[in-house]
Design brief:
The protein is built from 18 helices and 13 strands. By secondary structure, it is α+β, with helices and mostly antiparallel strands.
Length: about 525
């Protein structure tokens, strides 16, 4: 069928061509129908002409057979009416087709790019495959997690814990502390005053035997040689006599200060400086021979400021120490007593050694201080450590510390000496009895020392303490071993203390005090 060009530039489909095609189809169908009808008539005539003559009975039999046949599918008249109806509907459809606007359809058909749609289709297929793979992976992970979840035991929350809010309160000025060492298994109490008192009582009975009976150079060799170097052996005879009343470290430093200034140190001069240092600023148990020796050396050189700075008076308006230089002389005053000497090193030194050191109240002042032989105390304590009546729930041994001026004991709890967490909760447990004793003491305090893995046990022990109503606080304890310092008995240091040398005037180095304890 020829395609007819459109006046609209080819943008619309040609409906005339479509109508021609439909008409041709209908015409052909009608012709075919007529031909088939004619052929049918000829066939019927031929059949009738070819039929052999029949009798009346045979005709009746055939008629009966024909009557027995089902009626025709359609009446020819009805077929004609149906045909006319179809033609009418066809004409109407053709007219409707002529009025359809096919411009949008044509535009869309023209804009279609088959290759582009193929690419998009492939991309969608690929995306679908990727999503399918991802979905399968997620489903597999879900199944794996379900399997793990089925194998996971049901979570059982731990039992509730006792929790309390802290209540900071002032610590007693003179606390009687009872330590409660808290381990994972339970608690172990330790009252330091009660533990130390029997030891102190034993030392008091024989303390006169614990002083130096004979002073050996060997124990002090490293200390003295570090301070004096080559002068150590020469200085030892002058230093050793002060071993029972002054720290050898300070005596050696004072010896060095005198020797450096050109003054020959003697036992008499060192004893005088020791007695004077007990009465100057920072004296008594905090006596410092080094500062006093430096001040005396400065005075022999004409500078009195260092000596005046050691004035022990608490009222600046009424000083005890005075020193003025005028006309080649120096006037020293100690309280109401005044002494005038020539302003030369020998006479100034003689004032301190022969005049001031011989004054009542200053002479032999250093003898009031006793320094004990650490080796003798250690031997005594080692023997005491074997006495079960002294040790109680602990064993102890001497822990030598050459830089300390007192003896340190290292304590370890004995096996089975404490109570378990369950036992301490019993109404008449030793732990509860201990808490009641502490509560009865106005200055009694329980100090819980908790090991890192024992906080749960501490909570249980603290709950019982709160129920009793005892004053308490706590801190961490790295290990169950504890130390006790016997500061009541000063011993000689055998190594430098490592502290900074005090400034002139006896003032101590500035330091930051640790935070004060509080009850919680």
């Amino acid at each position: 069928m020829a395609k007819k060009s459109s006046s609209s530039g080819g943008s619309e489909l040609n409906l005339d061509s479509l109508m021609d095609a439909v008409t041709n189809v209908v015409g052909v169908l009608m012709i075919v129908f007529v031909v088939m009808a004619l052929n049918t008539a000829r066939v019927v005539q031929k059949i009738l002409s070819d039929l052999p003559p029949v009798t009346e009975e045979e005709h009746k039999q055939m008629k009966d057979k024909v009557d027995a046949l089902p009626p025709p599918v359609a009446d020819p008249k009805k077929l004609d009416e149906e045909k006319l109806k179809i033609e009418t509907q066809l004409k109407k459809i053709v007219e409707d087709l002529k009025t359809i606007d096919t411009s949008d359809l044509a535009a869309k058909a023209k804009s279609m790019d088959l290759d582009e749609y193929k690419k998009q289709l492939e991309a969608r297929k690929k995306e679908r495959e990727e999503q399918k793979a991802a979905s399968e992976k997620l489903l597999a992970e879900v199944e794996r997690l379900k399997a793990l979840l089925d194998q996971t035991p049901i979570y059982q929350p731990p039992p509730s814990k006792y929790v309390r809010l802290p209540n900071p309160r002032p610590y007693p000025e003179k606390p009687n502390e009872t330590r409660v060492l808290v381990a994972k298994q339970g608690v172990l109490s330790f009252n330091q005053p009660k533990f130390v008192q029997p030891i102190i009582d034993g030392i008091e009975k024989v303390k006169s035997q614990l002083e130096y009976q004979r002073v050996e150079y060997a124990p002090f060799a490293k200390l003295v040689e570090k301070i004096l170097g080559p002068l150590a052996t020469k200085a030892w005879p002058e230093i050793a006599p002060l071993v029972n009343r002054m720290q050898i470290e300070q005596v050696a430093e004072a010896y060095k200060a005198l020797a450096t200034a050109g003054i020959t140190p003697t036992k008499q001069i060192l004893e005088a400086i020791a007695d004077i240092s007990m009465k100057t600023k920072g004296g008594s148990a905090g006596a410092n021979m080094v500062v006093t020796a430096d001040a005396i050396v400065a005075a022999t050189k004409g500078s009195m400021a260092e000596w005046v700075a050691l004035d022990p008076s608490r009222d600046p308006a009424t000083p005890i120490i005075k020193a003025t230089a005028s006309g080649g002389k120096v006037t020293f005053a100690w309280g109401a007593k005044t002494t005038e000497v020539k302003a030369n090193p020998k006479d100034v030194l003689d004032y301190f050694v022969k005049d001031l050191a011989k004054m009542k109240g200053i002479e032999d002042a250093s003898k009031a201080r006793t320094i004990y032989d650490g080796a003798r105390i250690a031997a005594l304590l080692q023997r005491a450590a074997t006495n079960p009546l002294l040790t109680g729930s602990y064993t102890f041994e001497v822990d030598p510390q050459p830089t300390l001026a007192y003896t340190r004991l290292a304590l370890k709890p004995k096996g089975g000496g404490g109570e378990t967490v369950e036992a301490l909760k019993q109404p008449n447990s030793a732990y509860i009895r201990l808490l009641r004793d502490v509560k009865a003491d106005p200055n009694g305090v329980v100090l819980f020392q908790v090991m890192p893995d024992a906080f749960d046990a501490y909570l249980e022990a603290r709950k019982v303490a709160d129920e009793v109503g005892v004053a308490a606080t706590w801190d961490f304890l790295a290990k169950l071993d504890i130390t006790v310092n016997l500061t009541a008995y000063e011993i000689q240091r055998l190594a430098p203390a490592g502290t900074a040398r005090p400034r002139p005037g006896g003032t101590a180095p500035v330091g930051i005090a640790p935070p004060k304890k509080t009850l919680d």
